[in-house]
Amino acid sequence: MHRRTIPSTAVEVTELGFGASVIGNLYRTTSAEDAAAAVDTAWDAGIRYYDTAPHYGLGLSERRLGAALRDRPREQYVLSSKVGRLLVPNDHPTGVDTEGFVVRDDLRRQWDFSRDGVRRSIEETLERTGLDRLDIVYLHDPDDHWQQAADQAMPTLADLRDQGVIGAIGAGMNQSALLARFLRETAADVVMLAGRYTLLDQSALDDVLPAAREHGKAVVAAGVFNSGLLAEDRPAEGMKYDYRAAPPALVDRARAIADVCQAHGTTLPAAAIAFPLTHPSVINVTLGMRDPGQVRRNTRLHRQFVPGELWDDLRDQGLLRAETPFAPDERSQPCP
Length: 336
Description:
The protein is of the alpha/beta class. Helices cover 35% and strands 18% of the residues. The chain is built from ten helices and 14 strands.
């Protein structure tokens, strides 16, 4: 599997990443056996970038991912986690987490982008994973915490990076405007951009992607299926877009894109994975993978050939923004 390096760092990630939110029981229960088998299958497929966070299942994702990776050669993979939500005892549990994960709520999340909060979060992540270090640390959803995140959290991460404790630092969010500020105004090396550079939403062309190119920094693309609307060959009514029911107009647009994909001998989900990687600043697409079947499907889609002419055709039909750039050697996803 192709690898790309975060500029100005020694951190190298595979083009396809393993998103571990779902093995933290996102939306529904995943068995420990399926979670472990998903990581094993991803490893066998050549995936060497794994992303998690304390938020995911109130630590369950970190524990499961750490257990599955613990006996792997540490120098052969890249692990990222996030800071900004400390896990603290919940004095008023209801029995089930209220933020989308099917886990007990004996713990709760507490926003904290302070220097001490960042260091404590990293230490607790290492305890939960049982691993010796994190390669990438992102600030997690600092939408309402810019000042503390920029003034305290990011300088703390930069100090740890400069000491060699962390390989690369950044922020991860569902919006692109604030991520652009992190790239322009802080020591961030990389950002994880969820849902804003996809076949249905290229709004990152207005801010974060130009910032990344201007400052020689990198972007990891997540949420490339926009919560599911781009995940099937033929989108159906009732599918999700950005965590909500997809508006009919967007379903129609997704179907139009699917028609063009079919005419070029490929599929909508394969194109959805390949598209972000055509931008010169995007180094990885990270997908949630719950079980071995999902891993096999995602790796198969990643390897599916997507001809460069598809992007031209989509632009000509007004289905992609006209100014969408393509790296000279990344216009299509080659067969392995």
